[in-house]
């Protein structure tokens, strides 16, 4: 049987300190990037989360010493928010922003001929930092690949219950770090803005939550089990960037031109 994490405070301080250092280390290069010459564009994004058993984004499970199976599955969710892009050239950009993330999970317990389930939601916020490299495929079309990191922040712990069980899903730290990877396609127009379609992977460096599950069998409370939630997920990305301000771009070009 899995060892129960009754208290994750010993982990929290270590991860909290590491992630705070990570955020601080990201702010300086981000400020440097935005201080460089180039065009800044603002955009909106909506990214549905899809449950696929790929790159540890699928069901996570364990079995206790009585043969009772416990599992947690990501059902659905979405990531939505604002994007700020700093374009150094047509082929190189830096992006950041802030996103609201909502994920829905299901707990399943199978005990011989009996099974039951319950659901819970995890709400979080992300501040991604990514470097994008483009390849131009047409007059107005581009494909891109990007890598980056994101501090992930979670509002609270989560508690849920079913017929004969209860669970307490506890965040390991208020702020946690994740790796980002993305592939996409973009259509750019000066008048109507930029239209983007892509796919992304979000992979935390450590499990973001621990779910402690307590099950009652025939009226007797069994020892609890723990399932670490990796927090990995895959998305399909829809983005729209507003057209750059032509006056500001022209003014900047005039300012930078030699006398």
Write the CATH fold name: Porin
N-to-C series of helices and strands: HEEEEEEEEEEEEEEEH
Largest sheet: 10 strands, antiparallel
Second-tier CATH architecture:
Beta Barrel
CATH hierarchy, class: Mainly Beta
Assembly of the depicted chains? single chain
Q: Count up the domains.
A: 1
Low-confidence stretches: 1-13, 250-259
Number of helices: 2
Record field, number of beta strands: 15
The separation of the N and C termini measures 75 Å
- Provide the gyration radius in Å: 22 Å
Mean pLDDT: 82
Structure description:
The chain is mainly beta. The chain has one domain: Porin, CATH 2.40.160.20. Helix content is 15%, strand content 60%. The protein has helices at residues 9-35, 246-256, and strands at residues 39-50, 60-63, 69-89, 92-111, 114-126, 129-136, 141-154, 158-161, 165-171, 175-189, 193-204, 209-217, 220-221, 225-229, 233-241. The longest helix has 27 residues, at 9-35. The N and C termini lie far apart (75 Å).
Concise description?
This protein has a single domain (9-254), classed as Porin (Beta Barrel).
Which structural traits does this protein have?
259 residues; mainly beta; Porin; 10-stranded antiparallel beta sheet; 5-stranded antiparallel beta sheet; 2 helices; 15 strands; 60% strand
């Amino acid at each position: 049987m899995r060892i129960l994490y009754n208290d994750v405070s010993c982990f929290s301080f270590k991860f909290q300190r590491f992630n705070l250092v990570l955020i601080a280390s990201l702010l300086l290069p981000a400020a440097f990037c935005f201080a460089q010459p180039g065009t800044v564009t603002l955009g909106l994004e909506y990214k549905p989360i899809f449950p696929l058993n790929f790159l540890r984004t699928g069901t996570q499970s364990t079995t206790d010493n009585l043969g009772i199976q416990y599992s947690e599955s990501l059902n659905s969710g979405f990531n939505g928010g604002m994007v700020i892009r700093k374009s150094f050239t047509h082929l190189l950009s830096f992006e950041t922003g802030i996103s609201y993330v909502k994920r829905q999970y299901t707990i399943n317990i199978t005990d011989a001929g009996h099974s039951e389930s319950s659901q819970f939601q995890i709400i979080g916020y992300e501040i991604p930092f990514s470097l994008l490299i483009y390849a131009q495929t047409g007059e107005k079309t581009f494909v891109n690949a990007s890598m980056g990191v994101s501090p992930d922040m979670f509002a609270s712990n989560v508690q849920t219950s079913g017929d004969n069980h209860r669970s307490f899903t506890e965040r390991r730290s208020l702020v946690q770090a994740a790796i980002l990877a993305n592939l996409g396609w973009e259509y750019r127009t000066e008048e109507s803005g930029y239209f983007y379609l892509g796919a992304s992977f979000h992979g935390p460096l450590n499990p973001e939550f621990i779910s402690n599950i307590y099950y009652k069998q025939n009226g007797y409370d069994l020892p609890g089990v723990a399932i670490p939630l990796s927090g990995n997920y895959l998305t399909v990305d829809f983005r729209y960037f507003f057209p750059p301000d032509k006056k500001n771009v022209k003014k900047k070009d005039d300012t930078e031109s030699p006398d």
